[in-house]
Specification:
Elements lengths: L1 H9 L3 E8 L9 E9 L2 E6 L13 H12 L5 E4 L2 H10 L7 E4 H8 L8 H9 L7 H4 L13 H28 L3 H21 L6
Parallel strand pairs: 1-4, 4-5
Antiparallel strand pairs: 1-2, 2-3
Length: 211
Amino acid sequence: ALEAMIADLRRAEEVVVDVESTSVDPMNARLVGIALAGAEGRAYYVPVGHQGEWAGSNLPLPQVVEALKPLFQDPGVVTIAHNANYDLTVLAEHGLEVGNLACDTMIAEWLLNPASHSLGLKALAWSRLGIEMTPIEDLIGSGRKQLTMDLVPVDRVVPYACADADMTLRLARLLQDELHEKALWPLFAEVEMCLVPVVVDMQRAGVKLDA
């Protein structure tokens, strides 16, 4: 199934990558799963870090990294993400470098509307596509009883994660067209997208500080 997924994604013009993890801090987050999409309405979820009774659904992380590495390091594969800084950092910390980032839908929306209050994926899907997505609190709860994603049943994470990847792809196509129409594409493609992997490297390396 993993090989079939990669073969399918290789036929796509663009591939969305989105991670599910255990923390909003990408340097401390444990990877739970990877969602991927290459066509609207079809997405995949690869579980790697679920715990407890759902651990049996996981694929070994080294196997997944080895299988996905050629895809993400192929210069002919265009990569898309929402808040790519986070996803690329988490993946890099788990041994998977993602290259050829062409579109970050969060940055695209910010360039088009710097005053936007819809930079989060769920808000952006609603404001741009009119689609109401499942909030993450429906899966992990909130407050003292909040879980981490690795403790959520895999069959509940699959539709949630796949929707994230699917909506990111739909938003990318819409926002990229608008960036071209408003003559913002050179700024987006030649400055903003080139800076994302630089910032990821800076975060991972850290800054030497004289305490």
